[in-house]
Each structure stands twice: as C-alpha cells, then as structure tokens.
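User: Hi! I'm a student and our assignment asks us to look at how structure tokens line up with a sequence. Could you show me two examples?

Assistant: Happy to help. In each example below, the sequence comes first and the structure tokens follow. Example one:
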Amino acid sequence: MATHPAGPSRQGPSRLVPPAWLTAGLRPASTPVPWAAVARASVTLSAPLAAGLAAGQPAYGALVSMGALSGVIGDTADSYRMRIFNIAVPQLFGALGVTLGTLVFGHGWAAVAALTLVALVSGMISSIGAVASVSGLLLLLNAVVGAGLPMPGPWWKAPLLLTLGGLLVLALTLLGWPLRRAAPERTAVAAAYRAVAALYEAAGSDTYDAQRQAVTASLNQSYDLVLARRAREHGRAPTQVRLLAQLNVLIPLVEAAPAAHLRARRHGPVHPSVPAAVRDLAAAVEEGRTGSPRLELPDPERPSEKAVDHALRHAADVVHEADPDPYNVDDRLGRPAALRVRVRRTARAVLFSGASWRYGLRLALCIGLAQALVSLIPVPRSYWVALTVTFVMKPDFGSVFSRAVLRALGTALGLVLAALVLSEVPRGWWDIPVMMLLAALIPAFSAKGYVFQTAAITPVILLLSDLLNHQGFGLVLPRLYDSLIGCAIALVAGYLLWPESWHARIGDRLADAVADTAAYVALAFAPTGAPRRGAATAGTESRPGPGAETGTGTGATMAGGDRGARLRARRALYRDLSTVRSEFQRALTEPPPTGTRASAWWPLVVAVERIVDATTAARIRVDHGAPPPDPAEVAAVERELREFAEGLRSSETLVEVRSDLPGDENGVLAPLRHEVRAARAIAGPDLG
C-alpha cells in the first residue's frame, strides 16, 4: 500500500495560499534578541569607519568594517574557545580570498577562470564541518569582492585591513572570557538537565517524542562545548572535569527515560518528585553548588522505576561532588577522534566523496557562469551577481530553491532601506550613526531567518561598497538586477540542471541509520565482551557521518556488549538520527516533488527513533531485574531491521510490508517488536 502525504482539504471553497516552503521562510523564528551580539556588531562596524574618516582614509575604514562584518556573521558559537576557531580561522581564508581576487582584478577571462577554481575549492571544503563551511564561504566571497572592487595597493593592504576587522570582533568577543571562562559550558549542561526534567514530565504523553528530540539537541550542544575543552590530565582543568562528569551521569537518566515512558503509558505519569529533583540538579550545576544531596523519592517497585531511582541518586552524588576523580571521568561519549584519524577522514571526505565533488562542481559552474555573463555584458560593479550565487548555493543554509526566492525578497527589502540611506543621508560623519543602527540589525534579524538576515546585511554591504566606489544612489537598482540574475543562475545551473536536487534519494541516510540501529540492537543484548555480527562494519569507516566528527560512530564502538560501548553507540546513533531529521526538515522546504516525498517519508524518521528508544528501554529493564530475552528473538529483530534498511535503499516508493516477528508477548522485547512492525507497516521494498 503506497503512503502519500495528506492532500489539501476539500472542505470549503478553494483559495490561493502560498506554498509551505515559502511561508516557512517568511515566518520569523521566535528566538530572543542576542543583545551582546547586537552591541558588538554596532561598535565593530562603525568604529573603523570613524577611524578611517578621522585619518582621511574612508576606504581603509570600509575594508576593516567589511572584515568585521564577516566576523559578526561567523560568531555563532557559545564557547569562547570555539569562538576563536569560528572567527579567526575563516578570517585567514577570507584574507587568502581577497588576495587572489585582487591579483586577478581587471583581467577578464583570467578572473573568470580563477574564481571558478576558487569556487570549486570552496564548495569542496565546505563539506568538512561548520568552521570549514564558513571558511569556504569567506574564501569565495572575498575573492569575488577582490576581483570586482578596486582595492588600495599594494596587494597585501586589503587582506590586512579585512583581517584587522575580524580580529576586532574577536577581541570584543573575548572580553568576557576571564570573568565567564566556563559560563557557556555550565549553562549548556544545566540546560541539558532541564531538558531531561521536561522529558520525564512528558513521559506517557504525546509530547514525549518532541521533548526527546530537544534532549538530543541539548546533549549534542553540551558535549560539543565541554569536549572542546576536555581535560585529560589530573589537575589540568578541574572545572571542565567536573562539568564532564556531571554531563556523563545525565546519560543513565536519559537511558532510563524510554522505560519510564513505557511504564507511564501503562500505569500513569512519572511521580512529580523525579522531574523536580532533576531541575534541582540543574540549579546545582549552574550555581556550582556542592554538599550532601537531599532527595525525597518514592520507593521504586518496577524495573523501570528502579532504573530511574538508581540513575537519579547517582547523578545527585556526582553533581554535588566538589572534586570528581578525573581518572573516573569517561570522555569517550563525545570525544573527537585522534588528530590523524580526523585528518584522514577529512581528506577522504573532500577528495573521494561524490557529494563533495558534486557540490564543488555545482558551485563552480554557477560562479563561472556569473563571471562569464558579467564579462560579456557590461554590468557596473558586477561582483554582486557572484555574491548572490555564493549565498544562495550554501548547502548547509537550507533549500537552494527556497533560498533563491527568499534571497530575492530579502534583497528587495534591504534595497528599500539602502535607497533611503543613500538618497537622504550625506556621505561623511553621518555614516557613523547610520552604520551603528544598520549593523545592530544584523545579529538581531539573523536569528529570525534567512530572508530577514538578507534584508539586514544588504544595506550594510551597499553602504560599505559606496565608500569604495562612490556611486551613491546609483548602486540601488543595479544591485536589484544583479541579485535577480544571481538567483536565476543558482536556480537553473545550481538546482534544475542537477536531478539530485529535485529527485533526491532522501531515504539513503535513513537507511544508514536503520542499519546502525540493527547493530545497536545486537550490541544491547550481546554478552559482555562478545563481538557481534556486522558490528565492525556498520559505522564510520565505511561511510561518512556525524559519528566521524566525534570519533563515536556506531560502527567504531559496537565491538561488544559492555555498557560503555552501548552508551557511546547510543549517543552516536541519536546524533546521527538528529542529522537525519535535519536533512529531512531541509527537504521539506523544497518544492514538489522532493518536498512531497520528504513529507511521505517523515513518519519513518520518528519510527526509527522509537525503535532506538524501545531497545534502550528493554535493556534498562533487563539491567534492573527483568528476564533477558531469548537470543533468537534478538537475532530476529536484528535481521528484520537489516532487511528494512536494504528495502529503504532500493525503494523509491513507500509500500506497506506485513512483518511477522514471533516472540514472548510478555517479554521485554514485546514493545520493540511492536515498534519494528509499525515501521515496517509504513515502508518496505517495492517488489512489484
């Protein structure tokens, strides 16, 4: 039976409504305004202009402000150490980009060839990770600017000024480091505890799945922050050792949650003292409170209640401990792999990955067309066409199609504001207060969505460009035409000409997750230390994935049935599923047919997450007194999941598959078999 997304309602008169992929981008996100970032952007973009005007070199001030703009856009991390990487590393690539662009300025087809090659490299390195993505973006953006705008000589002056702007942002960002050294990490760990408290409150209800996803996201963020500064040696960083210990003891509570959810569906909600105790632990983490914990919990009766009680009391002991033993703190749950391993994986991902080459070639084709077009047709200050292509084609910013439309809308809104500034505000010292206001809008609007970020950045770039080329109001309409041309190039050469854009096999990543889930089921019930079939090959060495970034890929850890390996495998699997969910959410913003196919496959993402939860719940119940399952039952579930994964890889259409999984209906695996049957009823191989 084919599965199709729900169609439009037939009740009432039909009316024209905007498509979902467009309305989703136009709806501002309900996020708080980052006031510190607002103040930082206002100062770092306006102060260089004031210094340039005072020195009689406004162009120099404009270049420093351009570098500061790159730093403001890249300042997205919470940890101070990660901010150094997020701001400083991309600035180096940006300096290299503007140097290359300056060297080919005014050289016609040589500039076209150079920027096309830079675009290929930029696109390929963008697949490595978040910092590499921003670095690739600045490499190409600054190369385009250097090739399109006259820069002050000699050749080294422009990259130096741009780098100074980025360093100014970094310096202001790090002002609070001495006073708030571990504050971002401590806040993140406390937030993870609060998310787990909300998870227990949601146990047994329809909101449990959504809250479990919030817990996964919070744990991912916490481990990324804490392990960026992880401590390996005794006495090296006691604060980080303590935070890592507090984060690790949260994992048993997360593991016990699926069992508590199953128990709550049968016997009523979790006792309110449990989430209250977890929230008290969150406050203790945030305040650095130590001492003897006081827990008032009901006496546990069932295995799931014993699991929660044991995990909560252990977490309370560790949270309130002043000096945890650093040798007893396991940082392998999210620890990055060894440097040589990461270098090997990165090089392989860039040089031998089909996705890396496809994106690099797509971006190179679009940039080459943009530069060739403006070389054949005299367009004044034509660098804006390639800038538009670069922003639209970023793969980790969302759908190319919807981003092209939203970019055009955001640019139009930004140009309206830019027209008012360029026509009414005289050039000179009046630029300073105007820049203070416009720069403050960038971080405030960026948190609301792509179209709002574009609307905020556009007038800032135009004002800085005017200080370099002195075109005034004449910049406005050409920039609108350039933006429309760039969006059209991205849509045609970067989207429509590539079948994978509108006919993507979005089930491949999900099939990988199902295969890893099968290995996790085998690991969860394997005898301690016993290797399981398929465990050594189901992970990061055979294919890239989120686990490759942290060194905790499922296949790398599924070597036996010990509890540590199971915990690391489960963390890696949930991180992988979180990435799969993000991939599907991106696909949902695509126009048909990709968007409609993603909506049809979406229930499978939830089904796989529930299978992982059911596996964990069964393991927890066994650990606390329930009879273990028959190995034949475990093997049958594992085999069914592997067949399920192969079916997803080979199927374009979702069809219902009736699955017969015999076993003890009163045993611990009964809920797991139910979830597997439910998933198989959604989809299987289309053999007809």
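Example two works the same way, sequence first and then tokens:
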Amino acid sequence: MQTAADAGDAATLLAAVPAGRRVALVDPRFVGHVHALRLGLTDPRFAAATVPGALTAQPEARGALLRALRRTTAAVGAGAPVVARDTDPAPEDRTVPGRIAVALEAEGTAVKRPELGSLTATVPTDAGARATAESARAGVDDEAVRLRSAVKAHDGFFTTFAISPYSRYIARWCARRGLTPNQVTTASLITALIAAGAAATGTRGGYVAAGILLLVSFVLDCTDGQLARYSLQYSTMGAWLDATFDRAKEYAYYAGLAIGAVRGGDDVWVLALGAMVLQACRHVVDFSFNEANHDAIANTSPTAALSDKLDSVGWTVWARRMIVLPIGERWAMIAVLTALTTPRIVFYALLIGCSLAACYTTAGRLLRSLTRRASRTDRAAQALADLADSGPLAQGVAAVAPGLRGAFTAPAVALLGTLVMIGAALFLPYGSWLIVAAAAVYVLLSGLAVARPLKGVLDWLVPPFFRAAEYVTILVLAARSDVPHAVPAAFGLVSAVAYHHYDTVYRIRGGTGAPPQWLVRTIGGHEGRTALVAVLAAVLTHAAGFTTALTALAVAVALVVLVESIRFWVSSSAPAVHDEGELA
C-alpha cells in the first residue's frame, strides 16, 4: 500500500507497478465496511470494479485505467483537490476513483459496481457526513452480512433450511484455515464416490453409510460455493469443477446403487439408466428455455406475470421450488430411501418424482412460450443450434434441404423424428434392419429441424427432443439386447455423452460459445451416435460383442470429450461461471 499526495502522484505510482498485477485506488477519506472494499476490490471475475471511493483494475484494464487517470488529472489538476460540482451525475462520481470509473466506462471498459445492500461505502466531505457514515458503519455487523451473502439466493427449501444455516459457518472455518473452494469441491466428490462404493456393497450397513455420506457430500457441495462467495475465491478451474462434479457424483451414486442391487439379486440397471436419462432431459429443457429467452426482445407473458404475483405469497415460492425436485430435495430423498429401503424403491421414487417435476416445469415453459410476445435474437438461435449438437450427417441434410417454414415446424419435425426413432427401438423386432432404416429417417428429420435458425416460439424444444431420442434409444436397445452387461455399458455411454452436453451448456453460459466443431464432428453428433448404436444392434444381434462395442464407444467419446474439456477449462479463455449469493 502506498499513499499518493495527489492525482498526479497516483498516476506515477500506478505506472511503476509491474504490469501483471492488479491495482486499486482508494480515496483516503473513505468510510465503510471492510467487506464493501472486499467486494469492490478483490473479486477476480471482473476486469474493473468500483464502490464509492474505491476502484480496482485487473492487468487487462490497467492501460485504460492509466489513460483515464491522466485525463482526470488534466481535468482537475494534478495537485488540486476534488471538488463536488452540481453537474456531477452522482455523489460517488465526485471522487477521483469515481471520476475514473466514469471515464473507463466512457472509453468502453466495463466497470462492475457490486450491490452493497446494507454495507456502508462512502466518501464524506465534512465532519457531519463523516459522523453519519461512521454511525451507519457501526450499526451493521460486517461479518453477519458477509456470512449471509455467502448463501446462494433462490435455493431450494431443503438447502435453505436444513443445510445453509450451518454450512456457511463451515465455509468460514475453511476460509480461516486457508482451504480453497476447489479443495472442498474435490472433498465433496471423494465423499460421494465413497458413498457410491458403500452402496455397491449391497448390504444394509452399506446402504445406511451411503445415505449418510451422500448427505455429507451435499453439505460440502453447498460449502464450496459459499466459501467462494465468502472469500471471493472465484476461478475458472472452480467453475469447471463445480459445473461437472455434481453430475459425476449423482451418476456414480446411481451406478453404485445398481451394483449393490445386483449383488442382492435384483438387476436395476435399466431403472438407473432411466433415472439418469430423465434427469438429463429435464435439465436440457431448462437450459434450452433459458437460452432461448436469455436476451429476448419484448419478453412479456401473462404466465410470467402470474408467477411474479405468486412470488409475493411466501408459501407458494417454497412449494414451487420443492415441486421441481432440485438437487437438495433430490439428494435428501435418495439418501433417506437408500438407508431405509432398497435400490429399486430409490429409483422408482426418482423416476416418479422427476417425471412429475418435468411435467410441471415443461408445462409452465410451454405456457410462457405460447403467451409470450418476444423476438428471439441471433445469439439465442445460435445457442439452441449449439445445444442441438447436430453432427455431420444432420448438418449435411440441413445444408441441402430447403428450410421448412412455420412457427412450430422445427419442434414438430424434431418430435416426429424422436417418435420414429424411439418407436422403432421399442416396437420393431430387436436387431431388425428396419430400426436402422428408422435411424436414417431420424437423421433426415434431424437435419430438416435445424435447416433454419431456431427462432420460433417453441424451437427451444428441439434440443430436448434430440436428447430424448438419443438417450432413450441407447437405453431401449441395450435393455432389449439380452446381452450380459449391455445396460451398464449403455450407462457409461450415456454418461460420457451427457458430460459433453453439460459441458456445452456451461461454455455457452460463460459466453465463450459451444465446443469446437471438430469435437462435435469427431463424436458424431446426436444423430450419428444414435444411428451407430442402431447399426451395432443390427450387426451384433444378441452377441456379447454388442457390450464390447458400446463400451468402446463410451470410452472413445469420454476420452475425446474430457481431453478437450479439461484443455478448455484450464485455459485462460475459460469463464468463471458462478451463481451469485443473496444481496446483503
């Protein structure tokens, strides 16, 4: 920390700081909470940020900061005090840091202004204002606000009332001992894998231990995000771990339950894969709908207005959050049922609960879409195209096919293709080449569905239909094959593909776009993988080679996807995707 005599001296001192370091300017008259400065000056996600009386810049914004500071110095004089003027747009812009923040924004550099809530951050200009600011600062418990802000807003009922009241203190304990969110995330994964191993024993003691460990894993899963928000330790690696480990934990636990059930004489692999497919399809409905409406123009809907009104009635908020069976409620249900019942009952409960949740959320999204007057943007259309995961076969069809017109054409064609593919897998003789012919029809219809930009009212349904077609086809063909271990191999294949789809979602959320096209082409796209599995089922009818082929395909997809994903998420271009905590 160095003290500058005036704005000119500050420019000289800042220029001397090594280029790779973050710098900050704080008005010496600043009065406020330490956590207000922490929010404004230490969050690594933003190139530049400010609170009243303070400003920070990451290395990429250093040049713009120095230029803005020199312009400010020229405007007010290198040694002249900063004087409030009636023409200043806001009191916080009357200080040197405030003026620089305005200058940065005028130049085109985004400056983050974090919400402070009840925290104090001000630059008093006289003794009376200073006394008022100091009184306001003394009236708010800085640490209590920091703890409260560490808890993510809009969490589920179980997480809010059964986990967060104490997990925030675990987060603070970890912060004071120098533990990082990534370490806690890894501990959560390890705990969940141990829980899966306990479930795989197939014993009552193992099931009880698995249920307890799964809840412990979830507590740690909440703690890592709270630790990140409490200590502002956001990172690209943390974003990747947080985005992928939840799915890895849940799928590993499903596999552990299935293995344990087999040891007890009950084969539930089909139920385990069905639960995974349903959960993944639920998520892609949410992702597609949100991306389609992320930046929609004139985004209004009577259904959304009704939802907003219901939000003012407290019990309806919690009821609707519980109906969708979020991760907290879902894991609590899984843990309790694992300890007290059997894996078959666990999966029945999951399938019923997730089906009801999927019907509720999808119906709401359909109503909002049909009653909403909105114009989708090119960005939204591109996001939906990326989520569709069309491979070279569908892209080839789309390139030569005339785009089908009509507000509901794309989802109707995608739905038709899905019904043709799943229906063939379910009802045609297993191993029949007619299933391969149905796969060819599915490829054709998949290409037609994406031949035009996905800007229609219900075009967000296209990616979910494709996910259902691919995942359910793999599930049905593996289940009907009567080949030993075919369904576990299919479980591995769907897991690898689902990871690719989740990875795509989080890249889009971070604003960096979908995975590279070479990756999508290499792993075939949804239609290519679906057709390949249909061909394998026809060629290797009731043969053990079908399991080997599914396993090899799963390993190949997993290797390609994981290598590229790891390369991206540890690179400098990866986004720090984190949910924000509740405002103080």
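Here is something you could point out in your write-up. The first strand starts at residue 23 and ends at 26.
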